[in-house]
């Protein structure tokens, strides 16, 4: 079977669904290929910072979450070794109107998917290979030929890889394989059927080589995570949620406050997952090919990063809006006059997207890695000086802008049957 599509997006994760929605908002039809048989809604939660809320506003779905979840106003960072506590406040510093909000990952994915037209997502569709073929079409200098494992061939004017850290599209572009940071993370949801009684604040516990935290989602659920220096033993328990939970309580989180251990004890084991923390070397993004012609990547396929700044999902939402903005400025109505839109200069639009995103995500990768390293590398004089003076006072705000505005999607009036005109404001 052979199919022709305007835009094909590989991967129905946060980046893929948000990109499809951004394109829909500007009048571009897309197909999302997902290798699983349904939405991959496993995982616990995600913390969305103000920059993510600006992106969600641009996508037109922010209000769906603010009615269900409340922003965090403050929290605490606690040194496990000496009990020193630092308060972090978000009151009065947020120009977006939103503080960080923890939401269920399932809710985010289902909300994005629910905004798409029926049939946009093609499940059980695994991408095997990519080829490009030059064309004489005035609307596109080349097309991508996608071969799926079921024998389907798809011809696409634009291809966007949102297929995660092991991206097939990223490999085709020549991006290096992400590397292991030497740290691992265990995540889960703690469930209290009668209510957990915790204040709506986050608590983070820092020790040498270890870090744990919990923060409320609702009055009955808390999101928690625990990061630590990896060992060879980890992979043996990685697929067993009960062993992961037991290992935290009896071994890994030794010395952590009882409140953290209680939260882990209340974990719904179905939500407990383990993952190595990996990232892409920033120089690969600086010097590597993030696009070739009408093909590019977004989300983890472009910029996998460690989670210390909580920007993996947030930056993926930014990618979607920025890509939608650039593609919307390079469109003309389909000559058939049926409201379909095709790219006149997709390659130039994609180059603009890459140029805008490259240094933003390079800074986030560097900041995430350094933040994790300085927080978990001891509390001696040198590390304290490096962490508190050099990193947080001078470097942190350069690499991490939680109020970064990815812009708004243009208003597009689709062509009518009578005049075939497209207007982009």
Automatic annotation (TrEMBL):
Residues 6-331 form the FAD-binding domain. Gene3D superfamilies: FAD/NAD(P)-binding domain. Keywords: Monooxygenase, Oxidoreductase. SUPFAM superfamilies: FAD/NAD(P)-binding domain (SSF51905). The keyword Oxidoreductase applies. The keyword Transferase does not apply. One of its GO terms (molecular function) is FAD binding. It comes from the Eukaryota. Pfam families: FAD_binding_3 (PF01494). Belongs to the 3-hydroxybenzoate 6-hydroxylase family. This is FAD-binding domain-containing protein. It comes from Protea cynaroides.
């Amino acid at each position: 079977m052979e199919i022709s599509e305007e835009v094909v997006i590989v991967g129905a994760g946060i980046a893929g669904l948000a990109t499809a929605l951004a394109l829909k908002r500007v009048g571009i039809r897309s197909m999302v290929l997902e290798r699983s048989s349904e939405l991959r809604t496993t995982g616990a939660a995600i913390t969305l910072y103000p920059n993510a809320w600006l992106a969600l506003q641009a996508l037109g779905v922010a209000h769906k979450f603010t009615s269900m979840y409340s922003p965090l106003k403050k929290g605490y960072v606690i040194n496990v070794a000496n009990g020193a506590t630092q308060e972090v406040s978000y009151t009065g510093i947020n120009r977006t109107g939103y503080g960080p909000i923890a939401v269920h990952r399932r809710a985010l994915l289902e909300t994005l998917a629910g905004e798409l037209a029926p049939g946009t997502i093609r499940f059980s569709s695994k991408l095997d290979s990519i080829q490009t073929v030059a064309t004489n079409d005035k609307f596109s200098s080349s097309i991508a030929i996608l071969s799926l494992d079921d024998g389907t061939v798809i011809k696409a004017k634009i291809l966007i890889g949102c297929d995660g850290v092991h991206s097939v599209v990223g490999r085709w572009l020549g991006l290096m394989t992400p590397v292991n940071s030497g740290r691992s993370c265990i995540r889960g949801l703690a469930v209290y059927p009668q209510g957990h009684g915790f204040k709506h604040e986050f608590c983070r516990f820092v020790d040498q080589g270890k870090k744990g935290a919990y923060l409320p989602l609702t009055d009955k659920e808390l999101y928690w995570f625990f990061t630590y220096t990896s060992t060879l033993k980890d992979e043996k328990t990685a697929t067993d949620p009960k062993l992961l939970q037991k290992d935290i309580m009896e071994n890994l989180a030794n010395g952590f406050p009882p409140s953290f251990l209680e939260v882990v004890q209340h974990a719904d084991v179905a939500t407990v997952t383990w993952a190595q923390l990996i990232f892409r070397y920033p120089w690969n993004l600086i010097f590597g090919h993030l696009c070739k012609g009408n093909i590019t990547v977004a989300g983890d396929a472009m910029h996998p990063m460690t989670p210390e700044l909580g920007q993996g999902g947030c930056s993926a939402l930014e990618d979607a809006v920025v890509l939608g903005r650039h593609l919307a400025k390079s469109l003309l109505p389909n000559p058939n006059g049926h409201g379909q839109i095709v790219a006149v200069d997709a390659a130039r639009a994609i180059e603009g997207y890459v140029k805008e995103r490259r240094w933003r995500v390079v800074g986030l990768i560097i900041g995430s890695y350094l933040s994790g390293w300085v927080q978990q590398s001891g509390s001696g004089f040198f590390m304290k000086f490096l962490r508190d003076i050099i990193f947080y006072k001078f470097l942190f705000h350069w690499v991490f802008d939680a109020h970064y505005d990815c812009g708004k999607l243009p208003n597009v009036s689709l062509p009518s049957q009578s005049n075939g005109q497209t207007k982009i404001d």
